[in-house]
Specification:
By secondary structure, the chain is α/β, with parallel strands linked by helices. The protein folds into 2 domains: about 35 residues; about 100 residues, Glutaredoxin, CATH 3.40.30.10. The chain is about 45% helix and about 20% strand. It contains 5 helices and 5 strands, in the order αβαβαβαββα. Strands 1-3-2-4-5 form a 5-stranded mixed sheet, sandwiched between helices. The longest helix is centred in the first third of the chain and has 31 residues.
Length: about 160
């Protein structure tokens, strides 16, 4: 006696949804590959020191920014991080007040994982302070301007 799950009728009914599923998966993969291939390369290659606002940094342009400026403060953040949003206005104020002396940048660690792994960022917000191309300090956590400013300005 043939069991119902081994019958040809049952197997033929299963084949059609499986084939459809495979076809849809292939279509989705083709669309994803197309989107990835059409993604534009970052156009921003140089970062100006005179910026009075934090500049958006990426894995691609961070090394250049660090080498081209005497003091760089990188605010490592993520869109889902509430403390990151609390410290953002402080970073913007400092960028405005120290324009021309310190370059402030923002690096989204969700989109730029290479830098996050390279600098072993385990908690955010984290501020990476670079002086003359070298990492000289790491400031972890959200804090008011009165606490953050002296930790940054001592590297001037």
């Amino acid at each position: 006696m043939v069991k119902w799950w081994e019958s040809e009728e049952y197997k033929s009914k299963l084949r059609k949804p499986l084939e459809e599923s495979e076809r849809l998966k292939e279509e989705r993969l083709k669309k994803e590959r197309k989107v990835l291939n059409e993604r534009p390369e970052p156009t921003q290659k140089t970062v100006k020191l005179a910026s009075n606002k934090p500049v958006n940094l990426t894995d691609a342009i961070l090394p250049e920014a660090v080498q081209d400026h005497p003091v760089v403060v990188v605010d490592c953040w993520a869109p889902w991080c509430a403390p990151c949003y609390m410290v953002a206005p402080v970073v913007e104020e400092l960028a405005r007040d120290y324009a021309g002396k310190i370059l402030f940048g923002k690096l989204n660690v969700d989109e730029n994982r290479e830098t996050a792994m390279q600098h072993q960022i385990m908690s955010i917000p984290t501020m990476l302070v670079f002086k003359n191309g070298e990492l000289v300090d790491r400031i972890i956590g959200a804090m008011p301007r009165q606490m953050l400013e002296p930790k940054i300005t001592r590297h001037l």
